[in-house]
Amino acid sequence: MTDSHSSTSVLTPLPEAIASYYETEDVVTGNWWNRSITRQIRFSSEDYEEFSKKFQRMADELVLWQNQYKRKAKVLELSIFVHPWILKRILQQFNAQFTVGHGYGDFSQKGTIRLHLHDAFDSVGTHYLLYQNGKKPQNDKK
Predict the structure, then answer these.
(1) Which of 6, 35, 87, 121 lies in disulfide reach of 30, CB 3.0 to 4.6 Å?
(2) Which pLDDT score, from 0 to 100, does residue 17 have?
(3) What is the pLDDT of residue 33?
(4) What is the pTM (predicted TM-score) of this model?
(5) CB of 115 within 8 A of CB of 78?
(6) CA distance 72 to 63
């Protein structure tokens, strides 16, 4: 006996391989007296290992950026495109404790950090306010 109504399950296709990129841009706002520099960093990662390398690159560049602009370096905006199965680990990395001298850790103690995580299934993604003037906001999801 065969059933004329065979059940078929619809599987969500896996996303395509992510094209690797890493871009930075400094945006200057304000006049001469109250100038502020926002560092915008956009990158993609195929897996957590690639993310870790780019995170370290970002941290190293933040040391140079802070040395160059001093107190004018006020805001870090990150937009990261990754596969959805590593989103949680990435968010944990951004919220981890860092040793003194770590570029990201040092900046998080004084600056504002906004994070935008998105993936192939959710191109809008989620925005997080991780730090506001060196302090963790009460509700870090924005």
Answers:
(1) 35
(2) 61
(3) 84
(4) 0.82
(5) yes
(6) 14
How far apart CA 115 and CA 128 sit, in angstroms, is: 5
pLDDT band at residue 3 under the 50/70/90 scheme? very low
Q: What is the average per-residue pLDDT within 109-127?
A: 93
CB 40 within 8 A of CB 77: yes
* Whole-number Cα distances in Å, 28 to 7, 39, 60, 116: 58, 9, 21, 20
Q: What is the pLDDT of residues 48-89, one digit of tens each?
A: 999 999 999 999 999 999 999 999 999 999 999 999 999 999
Q: Roughly how many angstroms between the first and final C-alpha of the chain, as a whole number?
A: 56
CA distance 16 to 30: 41
What residue spans of 1-142 are helical by DSSP H? Answer: 48-69, 87-95, 103-108
In one-letter notation, the amino acid at residue 93 is: Q
Please tell me the distance from the alpha carbon of residue 8 to that of residue 22, in angstroms, as a whole number: 41
Nearest to 108 by CA among 88, 134, 83: 134
CA distance 65 to 125: 27
